[in-house]
């Protein structure tokens, strides 16, 4: 099963789609995709099936080039699938460790 990291606001990566001139906050990401927030009329790709590329920029300064396709748009959030070049799993784990250290309450089970 894919592993996905949900980001607290202060640690959210940003995503500037190529040629958009805008930076959008990333709500979550996993090896094969991510979801970013973009309002209507922002110039970001926002139609399912539309190709999209750019760089994910993380809180620690690391950037990763991504290229994929928009798979879903709902309530101002755009879901992107990365079919060819996944986000490295080590990058996903690295940010998960930071979230657990800074926000231990987010790591608690609800039972």
How would you explain this protein's 3D organization?
By secondary structure, this protein is mostly beta strands. The model has no long low-confidence stretch (mean pLDDT 85). The chain is 13% helix and 37% strand. It is globular, with a radius of gyration of 14 Å.
Name a few traits of the molecule.
mainly beta, 7 strands, 1 helix, 111 residues, 7-stranded antiparallel β-sheet, single chain, globular
Write the layout of secondary structure elements.
Layout: E1 4-6, E2 14-15, E3 24-30, E4 33-37, E5 51-57, E6 63-74, E7 77-81, H1 89-102
Antiparallel strand pairs: 1-3, 2-3, 3-4, 4-7, 5-6, 6-7
Shape: globular
Number of strands: 7
Q: Major beta sheet, specifics?
A: 7 strands, antiparallel
Percent of residues in helices: 10-25%
Write down the secondary-structure element order.
EEEEEEEH
What structural class should be given to the helix and strand makeup? mainly beta
* Average pLDDT number: 85
- Radius of gyration from the alpha-carbon trace, in angstroms: 14 Å
State the end-to-end CA separation.
22 Å
**Which residues sit in consecutive blocks of at least 5 with pLDDT less than 50?**
none
Strand content: 35-45%
What's the number of helices? 1
